[in-house]
Structure formats: structure tokens, C-alpha cells
Amino acid sequence: MTILIVMLVFSLYRQLIIEQENQVDSHLAAEMQRYQQLALTVNRRSFAAQIKAADPKTALIAWKNSVDMVGALTFLPDDMPILPETREFPIFSGGPEKLHILTGGLAMTNYGPVLIATRTDQLAILIEKFINAAFWAVAFTLGLTLALGYIFSKAILRRLVQYNQLSEQIEAGHYETRLPVSSQQDEFDMLALQFNRVLDTLEQNLLAVRGVTDNIAHDLRTPLSHLRIGIEQLSQKPMEELADARAELLEELDDCLATFDAMLSLTRIEEGQQSLDVQPISLQDICQDLFEMAEVLAEAKDQQFTLDLQQNATIQGDKYLLFQALFNLVDNAIKYSPEGATIHISQQGKSIHIADNGPGIADEDKERVFERLVRLDPSRHYKGTGLGLSMVKAILSRHQASIELSDNHPGLLVKIHFK
Questions:
Q1: Phi, psi of 125 (to 5 degrees)
Q2: Weakest mean pLDDT among 37-41, 116-120, 172-176, 297-301
């Protein structure tokens, strides 16, 4: 700001000097032309009379004839240049302002050189006034700028200090803390909104981790307790029952290991660590294989299982993983639907629908069932890890497919669409 103001003032100063110099040069040039023309039109006596009658306020004129000096001066200064070249020189007067500074030069006429000059000490006064005014203007502007800058910086620092204090609270574990957002909608508010969104996501992830931990503890506590009791009772069982008891314990242990294996597999799929065996897949063929594989399970529960295929479509993907995801959805429909229920698979282009008329899923749980180890209360009566739908969504996401759960009135309708 200081540099800009100084440059502006210096530019104005230069413009003032140049303008004054141009005015002086123009005035002297006009007077020079006047007296040169006068010398051509009048005689020497009339020329001297005109010089004596010249108004010194307009221009100071001096001419030395063969006898004496005529005009405003008693002698011509030495080394005066020929106009348009000029030089400053001082004169003394008897008035209150005894010293005057003049700028002028010699004009060559038919009657010899004539000194033509004009006062320029008033220009120095004007420049001095300009410099004083510019100094106080610059000082006032800089003072105002510093004051406003101080106030503005204090406001910024106040918000930064507040953000820093709130960040320390978040670092201390108070994840519900949020940065304040004002009505100004400035850059700090944009930063606060973005930071608050990050905190919302972080808090949701932490809640999800806590939920997963609680679900792991809840779902594994029972089988691990059975394992502990079974191991304690092994020594008390007769030899003929020992093999069966050992087999039951191994089955419980395998269920626990299956849960952890499923979690690791889900993580690898979600993070893209598991490579896909990409190949062309016919959606009609995979739905036909799915129907043939699950038909036996539906017949065991006396359920009606139907298939409707229309307008085949081919996608690129891993056939094994995709079949695993679709079979999980069909298996859930068979498992949670009562005996005599109807399960229907329909395929239209790149869309697959799996519908049943079972108990369905409440609206508030339709998104939650895709979280890890989430098992709704009715499903806890069935054996499972609570990772099936999480695995389904991860596999479909890797295949750039979307899944949506909606009501079938009654039952559940699963809509899958491939891009």
C-alpha cells in the first residue's frame, strides 16, 4: 500500500512539474513571437515604448538599446540562453517580497536580443504546498490503512484462535464439536462447513466402528462361551460321546473363523485389493444358473420360485463374485420368507429384480442392513455372520452396479441395475 501511494503521489508530482514547465514554455514562446513580430512592424522608438509599457505581471521584458536599458531590469544577466532554451535567475525588488525567481531567455529581434522572462517562484510555492498536502494525505491514508488492517487482522486471528481451540477439543475426543458458521458466507465459513462435513463423516465412521465392535462382541460371545463350556466338559464326557462333542466344538469354531474370514474378504473387495477375473457375463445366463441353484432350497420350504427373462444384456465382471452376491440375495429371500411364499426373479436388460412376499424390511432399516455385522432382530434367530448384504453391496459397487431395497406390498423388492 505504501509503495502504491508513493508511486501515485510521485506520478502526480511529475505531472504537475511537466504541466507547469509546458505552461512556462508556451507563455515565453508566445511572448517571443509577439516581440519578434513587433520589431518587424514598428520603428525603434515605438519598440522601446512598447517594452516600457509591458505589464510585468504578464511577462518581464528587458531590452538594451545603444544608450541604456529599457524595460523592467537595469542590466541583462550574463549567460542567458536563446529561447526556447531557458534559465532561472534571481532579481531583487523594493517590495515586501525582495527576491524573485524568474525563468527566461533571449529572443532575437531586428532590434537586437530582448530578455523575456516570467516569475516561477510561485511554482515553487505551489509545489511546496502540493508536497505538504501529499505528505498529510499519505500519512492519513497509511494510518487509516494500518488501523483497518489491524482491525481486520484481529477479526481473522480471533476466528483462527476459536478454530484452534475447537480443534483441540476435537483432538481431545469431543467429536460432537463443530466449527461455528456465520451469516457472512465468507472463506472461513466455507472452510468451517467443509470441516464440519468431515467431522460428520468421521463421527459416523466412529459410530459404525463402535457398532461393529458391539456386534462382534454380541455375535461371538455366545459361540465362544459354548466353546469354553464345551472344552471344560470334554474331560467329563464318556469316550463314545467325545467324538460328537469335539465335532460340535469344531463347528462352533469354524463359524467364528468364517465371520473373520468374511470380514477380511469384505475389506479386500471394498478397498480393491482383490483382483477381479473380468470376463463377459450374460445376465440371462447368470439368472438362469441362479434359479437352478436356489430352486432346490425353495422347494424344501414349499415356496413358489419363478423366473422371467427378457432382453438379454452382457456386462464385464467377475462371474464368481457376481453370482455370490446374487445368490446371497436370493438365499435371504428364501430364508426369511415363510413356507408357501412366492419368490420371483426378473431380468430386463441390465436390471435384475428379486421379489418376495415375506416380512420385508422397515424403511428406517433399508440402508442400515448394508452395514457390517448389522442383523435385525428377526434375523438373529437364523445362523449367519451379518456380513452378507455388506458383501453384496461391495461386490456390486466393484461392478459399478446400484442396489435399492423397496416394499413389495407385502415383502421386499430388491432392484439391481448395471451401468
A1: -65, -45
A2: 172-176
Q: By the 8 A CB rule, do 118 and 104 touch?
A: yes
How distant is the alpha carbon of residue 376 from its chain centre?
41
Instruction: Please name the CATH architecture into which domain 187-270 falls.
Output: Orthogonal Bundle (1.10)
Q: Where are the alpha helices (DSSP H) in 271-318?
A: 283-300
Partnered with residue 356 across adjacent β-strands are 343
- pLDDT grade for 384, boundaries at 50, 70 and 90: low
Class of domain 278-418: alpha beta
The domain locations on the chain are 2-125, 187-270, 278-418
Grid cell 462382541 — which residue? Answer: 217
> pLDDT tens digits, residue range 310-332?
889 999 988 888 888 899 899 88
Global model pTM greater than 0.70: no
β-sheet with 401-407: strand ranges across: 304-310, 342-348, 351-356, 412-418, 401-407
Q: Which residue has the cell 527566461?
A: 104
